[in-house]
Design brief:
seven-stranded mixed beta sheet, 344 residues, 9 strands, two-stranded antiparallel sheet, 19% strand
Length: 344
């Protein structure tokens, strides 16, 4: 018994000098001395070796030792808590916090919203429609019969299970649905994603985004179309951009014209983007064909209208000088971060 008492005294001195500066050290102390396989349990197991007449005396020694170890453990915990509180108080809360990464809208969404905002100020409402369309709304209603050569200009994704359904090739199908459900005056823009079966390259993709516009009312003229588009270009690109119209052909408008602006990349001096002409096409436009109006029961002798359509990717390319259309859909954070803070 005397040998056990001496061991306990030696452990008392060891425990009294113990320190713990971290939560891990405090937990290590608890496991070492008070755990299920700790020192206190092991010493108590020696009780069976003590003579019966001295068990009461040795039991008191063991209880005093156990209380001593438990008190030491509580002291270490309190000291650690006090130190942590002191460390917390010492933090300078006036210092800047850790920076939080700021997200941004996609550049195509930024430009799309800017386009919508400009035309809203002219009284245009926003109309949307399905991306999976039927042949009538996408082609037939737009004055493109089955044997019309213009269909060859638009390589189409048809739905295999039902060939009369397809992925829309333009948002003109939304114009068709608006004319189908509303009577003039009509003044809408139709933003959305469209699909063409094209080889992916720096200048083309199998999907892209359009914003088309439609205005139908009495006495609408080509002059109204031109002034509307002049206003759009100046608001989007600035007052100094030059504009020109070139005669063109679209089956759903007559007369038709393509609209060019002076190249913003080279300032009109000529570059690869403008094919060294100094001009870049940004949209197609024209007066709504009478056949299109009659397809929806709109009297073409009373009403006239104009329509236009532009690719959002092309407008974004000119506005931000993006040289590869594939960047829009590659989710490259280095590219997208450039638009952080841009309002749109």
């Amino acid at each position: 018994m005397e040998q056990l008492v001496q061991q306990i005294e030696d452990h008392r001195r060891e425990i009294a000098a113990a320190e713990a500066a971290t939560p891990e050290a405090v937990e290590e102390f608890r496991i070492r001395y008070l755990g299920t396989k700790g020192l206190v349990k092991n010493i108590m197991a020696e009780m069976k070796q003590v003579p019966n007449e001295r068990k009461k005396e040795f039991g008191q020694v063991l209880n005093d030792f156990k209380l001593f170890v438990e008190n030491k453990y509580e002291t270490l915990k309190e000291n650690l808590s006090g130190q942590q509180a002191a460390d917390t108080v010492s933090i300078d809360w006036s210092l800047p916090g850790n920076p939080v990464p700021v997200g941004t809208r996609h550049p195509l969404n930024i430009v799309r919203n800017q386009i919508v905002s400009i035309f809203r100020r002219l009284g245009f409402a926003v109309a949307e429609g399905p991306e999976i369309e039927d042949d009538w709304h996408n082609f037939g209603a737009m004055n493109l019969p089955e044997d019309h050569p213009a269909r060859d200009m638009q390589d189409t994704f048809y739905i295999h299970q039902n060939p009369s359904w397809l992925l829309r090739t333009h948002t003109s199908s939304v114009q068709a649905r608006v004319m189908e459900s509303q009577k003039p005056p009509i003044r809408v823009i139709c933003p959305g994603r469209v699909y063409r079966n094209e080889t992916i390259s720096a200048r083309a993709h199998c999907f892209f985004h359009q914003v088309e516009g439609l205005y139908i009312d009495e006495n609408v003229s080509f002059a109204d179309l031109k002034q509307t588009l002049y206003f759009f270009v100046q608001e989007m690109f600035g007052k100094n951009v030059k504009v020109r119209f070139r005669p063109s052909y679209f089956p759903f408008t007559e007369p038709s014209a393509e609209m060019d602006i002076s190249c913003l990349i080279c300032g009109g001096s000529g570059c690869n983007i403008c094919k060294h002409t100094g001009w870049v096409e940004i949209l197609g436009s024209g007066m709504v064909h009478p056949n299109v109006l009659e397809n929806f029961g709109i009297d073409s002798n009373r009403y006239t209208g104009f329509a236009f359509g532009m690719g959002v990717e092309r407008i974004t390319q000119l506005k931000y000088q993006v040289n590869d259309l594939r960047l829009y859909s590659q989710n490259d954070v280095r590219f997208l971060k450039q638009f952080t803070g841009v309002v749109g």
